[in-house]
Amino acid sequence: MKLPLTLLPLLATPLVAKPLDIFDAGAVALSAVEQWFAPHDDLVDPVRTHLLVADGDEDAPVPELTISQGFSAHHNDLAGICNLRARGGGADDTDNFVNTMKRCGKNSLIIMNSPVYNIRRPIKIRLENSVLSLSGRLKFSDDIEYWVKNAFDLGFQNQKLAMIVSGSNFVLNGEDSGGIDGSGQAWYDYARGVGNVHGRPMSLALIGARNAVVTNWSIWQPQFWAHIAVDSDNVVYESCYVNATSTSGTFEEKSWLQNTDGIDTYRSNDVVISNFVYQGGDDCIAFKPNSTNIAVHNVTCVGGTGIAFGSIAQYDGVKDVIENVVLRDIKLYASDQCRGYQGVYFKSWIGEEVGHPPNGGGGGYGYCRNVSVKDVYMEDIDRPIALTAGLTYLDEEHGKHKYGTFEWSHINITRVRATSTANRAVWLDCSPDQPCHDIRFKDVVVTPGKTDHPEIHQVCNYVMHSDDDGLEGCKPNNSTLESDTGGTM
Ligand SMILES: *[C@@H]1O[C@H](CO)[C@@H](O)[C@H](O)[C@H]1NC(C)=O
Ligand SMILES: *[C@@H]1O[C@H](CO)[C@@H](O)[C@H](O)[C@H]1NC(C)=O
Ligand SMILES: *[C@@H]1O[C@H](CO)[C@@H](O)[C@H](O)[C@H]1NC(C)=O
Ligand SMILES: *[C@@H]1O[C@H](CO)[C@@H](O)[C@H](O)[C@H]1NC(C)=O
Ligand SMILES: *[C@@H]1O[C@H](CO)[C@@H](O)[C@H](O)[C@H]1NC(C)=O
Ligand SMILES: *[C@@H]1O[C@H](CO)[C@@H](O)[C@H](O)[C@H]1NC(C)=O
Ligand SMILES: *[C@@H]1O[C@H](CO)[C@@H](O)[C@H](O)[C@H]1NC(C)=O
Ligand SMILES: *[C@@H]1O[C@H](CO)[C@@H](O)[C@H](O)[C@H]1NC(C)=O
């Protein structure tokens, strides 16, 4: 892949690509990154030098936006450098930010190193061949009434977005200190105890992004899901951090940090997530419909519902796919604010449409296959490995509807060490209309936290067993002792 990203070698802190052999699915994405960040020995650094000159005159009044020009000796390209300062004093920086991106979002390095930039309205920006170096924080306002009315529509599950980045060949670099402060506390209090409250916007959406890297980028107290990649191709999330903690409420209330997902993928291909740290109350990572060729490596999830395949097949008559996914080196823990509800969780909707998304729906079809999960460590997780083919979030509908036809197959789970809080270690509740098949467990050791119901230690409903699949101890059918996914017995 040829990438004309001439500015990237100029970054002070180059991204070091990981060895390719640990990734299968992400090889394309990763090699692209490797090219972008390959050292160019012959490259002098006139851009940085120029920048220092532009910044150096201490007596001059400091403009909010400084634009200078740089020159890459390597490619003879003209490149802009834009240095945007915050207005300070609590003033709104949204217009300056959006206008800066309009002027500088092409062939440029945009530097934002004030501590805080106040964002009061939804942002949509486009970057081409550019690097956003943000060592400060974009602090989103928490005027709930305003955001519910004005956030962008995602067009999936009726969800909303606070910030959209599109374009190609770009890097969002949080420089280890920057990123987004979602001011999520107001949202957590607003939505306490209720899932998918309408209008909560996701913090950062890549939409239609090609060859994009999000690195060293933190999201503190996301309003809703922190990251989502939509309709994107070849995207790398490297060394990102998401932390959704609540400063109010009792433990049980904090446990309802729901919908604070870490990174979700939707209709995206070739996505790498590596060295990711998450704390929160929902999916650490989730693969939504049409997530293909995904590599996840070295991830720590603290609290919440673990790594989710789905939910999927929520839309009646729509075909959804999850395919070619590799997970390696995953650690999952409970937090002091939230249980560890699931570890690795596969979830597809009931077989008919009941209610509407986000909390209702069903009747979709499709498949998830070619998944490899290896080297997982879990501590105090309620349901370490779980699959349901009868999902609905409408409490009153649980257990009333036939399971769906979404096909789960070719899933290998290898080298797992886990402790669970309860009796259940493995719970695969597949559909009679589309039994799971080619599921292989190897060297999976889960120590239950309770042993009063050994018969449900491993439950496999409608799983077609194959020789040597590691599921010999899995009871074929009688999981009725456990009412639904909420059961932790
Ligand atoms: C399964 O996925 C891996 C990457 O994770 C890929 O290399 C391989 O080609 C896929 N296999 C099939 C049969 O598609
Ligand atoms: C993240 O930023 C820190 C500090 O600037 C730097 O040392 C580190 O190499 C960066 N990591 C990546 C992956 O860029
Ligand atoms: C998340 O933030 C809380 C509060 O600042 C902190 O106690 C906790 O250690 C953080 N979690 C991680 C995984 O860094
Ligand atoms: C795993 O990710 C964490 C968090 O970014 C990082 O500190 C650690 O060095 C990574 N480990 C490896 C082996 O890359
Ligand atoms: C997913 O891809 C399939 C084709 O494989 C397509 O028919 C379907 O509409 C896509 N689903 C979504 C949600 O875009
Ligand atoms: C799962 O393991 C089997 C047996 O070792 C192997 O043939 C298959 O390719 C593996 N599938 C994946 C997705 O890793
Ligand atoms: C459950 O499995 C047992 C054997 O393990 C069998 O006797 C019983 O008929 C099965 N029940 C159902 C509902 O399939
Ligand atoms: C499930 O099966 C086990 C072993 O066959 C049996 O001891 C237990 O009573 C059964 N439970 C139910 C609810 O049928």
TrEMBL record:
- Signal sequence range: 1-17
Q: Name one GO biological process term.
A: cell wall organization
Gene that this sequence comes from: rgxA
Q: Where in the cell is it found?
A: Secreted
What does it do?
Specific in hydrolyzing the terminal glycosidic bond of polygalacturonic acid and oligogalacturonates.
Q: Which GO terms describe its cellular component?
A: extracellular region
Taking the first listed entry, what is the main subcellular location of this protein, grouped into a coarse class? secreted
List the molecular function annotations (GO) for this entry.
galacturan 1,4-alpha-galacturonidase activity; polygalacturonase activity
Name of the protein described by the UniProt record: galacturonan 1,4-alpha-galacturonidase
- Organism per entry: Cutaneotrichosporon cavernicola
E.C. number: 3.2.1.67
| Record keywords | Carbohydrate metabolism, Cell wall biogenesis/degradation, Disulfide bond, Glycoprotein, Glycosidase, Hydrolase, Polysaccharide degradation, Secreted, Signal
- Protein family: Belongs to the glycosyl hydrolase 28 family.
Spans traversing the lipid bilayer: none
Q: Which Pfam families match?
A: Glyco_hydro_28
Reactions it catalyzes = [(1->4)-alpha-D-galacturonosyl](n) + H2O = alpha-D-galacturonate + [(1->4)-alpha-D-galacturonosyl](n-1)
Source taxon at top rank: Eukaryota
